[in-house]
Write a structure and sequence with these properties.
single chain
């Protein structure tokens, strides 16, 4: 299996925009937190989060994303469990989420993006963020309107967690990598 450094180089080759890079880093951070919590392979989970949208800039249509990226990853020798998780994060792919890795990637993807949006409008960023403050913003349909609230709810449900616990876990994971996400740490 390729190393994390290989994955990072491939990700940077395919992803130029700062916003998509920050999103992938946020998903990676949440995946790292859950890998530790579930006793899973941390490097595999980090790479899955990092690479899940690697083809999105060049191939954003549902006909191509994440299928193009998965073929590139398959040719590079990444494991099928990762590829299935990446396919499963796209609800339209038809690939069921049967592994904990796949369920977790789906569960953190939209939520990490939403938490990032919440952090941008808070003077303290991620610092001191609570599930309550995130849930308040979730109720505001105009805020980060493109984020699927249904996918966030369903993701927590698929992990068997209540929404508050899931939100707290993702905040914790992202906070641990706040510098990389552009939020600094106090």
């Amino acid at each position: 299996m390729p190393s994390y450094d290989d994955a990072l180089a491939l990700f940077h080759e395919w992803t130029a925009s700062d916003s998509l890079r920050r999103h992938a880093y946020a998903v990676e951070a949440a995946m790292e937190h859950y890998a530790h919590a579930f006793g899973e392979d941390v490097e595999l989970w980090r790479m899955t989060g990092l690479l899940h949208d690697m083809d999105y800039e060049k191939h954003p249509s549902p006909e191509e994303h994440p299928f193009v990226g998965v073929e590139v990853l398959r040719a590079a020798g990444y494991p099928e469990v990762m590829l299935e998780a990446i396919l499963g994060h796209a609800t339209y792919s038809g690939v069921p989420r049967t592994t904990t890795l796949a369920k977790t990637l789906f569960a953190v993807d939209e939520l990490a993006g939403f938490i990032t949006a919440v952090a941008y409008v808070r003077p303290t960023g991620l610092e001191g963020m609570t599930p309550k403050s995130v849930k308040k913003k979730l109720k505001d349909r105009a805020f980060a309107a493109a984020v699927s609230r249904e996918d966030i709810r369903r993701g927590a449900e698929e992990l068997g967690l209540d929404l508050d616990t899931h939100i707290a876990n993702v905040i914790t994971g992202m906070h641990a990598r706040a510098d990389r996400l552009g939020f600094g740490r106090s």
